[in-house]
């Protein structure tokens, strides 16, 4: 069964084999998370990280939470651009509610289909739109985020003297990769490039607000050093979480930060505290989606069920 077929059958009765596979994936992800965190805290005392959390400036932590929440608003707005490309015109309020519910599912269903699968299922069901089209819209939404991370990463490389490389090299690589990315999208997925540049501009703002959230967390620790090594490590750790081998990326980000302390001038306890705090902030925002689990009817407010998307030619 392909991933697309699996998402369409998201609510269908599962066989014993399906249930065992889902349970196995969940157990494996939890195990990987525990193992990674175990090795991290062997190198960095947990008491040091705990001290930072207990003595943080919570006003700046609140600012970080707000900044991340804004990034999620912009992120749901970005997704609308790709939905428009396939003729799916969602009510922005409904789209954001669905986005929050998706975030919640991504946290509580670490071994299942998750939030993206639920979006595909719900939109396919209500709009009679091929699941494959919704799947690729969501996929390009994710790719735009990776592109934005790459762009900001190139900018940060220029600010870190420990990276002894001419800025023209990463900039040239990024420019070439961007050209290839657009060419492939235009050649084989032209339908999804109708609002391509608009969506990628929004992606820059999404990642920008998340970087600002990390800046706020650092300020809340009375940090006065160079921000760029921590911000670059944060973006690299975000790329590492592409592979879904842990629960919500927990353990992976901390491991990447810990490893990069060998190369960048970062205080180890702070390097572990940052991704841990980001995980907590992400979880708090994701928990807002539980409201739509409790009140599913509220989720569908503003959903024009009678409207069918216009089929477009690639």
How many domains, as an integer? 1
What order do the helices and strands follow?
HHHHHHHHHHHHHH
The total beta strand count reads 0
Count of helix runs: 14
Oligomer: single chain
Please state the overall shape, judged from the principal axes of the Cα atoms: globular
Sequence stretches where pLDDT stays below 50 over 5 or more residues: 1-11, 306-314
Average pLDDT metric: 84
Straight-line distance between termini:
26 Å
Structural class: mainly alpha
User: Beta-strand percentage?
Assistant: under 5%
Helix content: over 70%
The radius of gyration is 20 Å
| Main sheet overview | none
Kindly describe this structure.
- By secondary structure, the protein is mainly α.
- It has one domain.
- It is built from 14 helices and no strands.
- The protein has helices spanning 3-8, 16-43, 46-54, 58-85, 92-108, 114-127, 131-157, 168-188, 196-219, 228-240, 252-260, 268-286, 291-294, 296-299.
- It is globular.
- The relative contact order is 0.17.
Short description:
This protein is mainly alpha-helical. It has 14 helices and no strands. It has one domain (14-299).
Key terms:
mainly alpha
Topology summary:
Elements lengths: L2 H6 L7 H28 L2 H9 L3 H28 L6 H17 L5 H14 L3 H27 L10 H21 L7 H24 L8 H13 L11 H9 L7 H19 L4 H4 L1 H4 L15
Helix pairs in contact: 2-11, 3-12, 4-5, 4-7, 4-9, 4-12, 5-6, 6-7, 7-8, 7-9, 7-10, 9-12, 10-11, 11-12
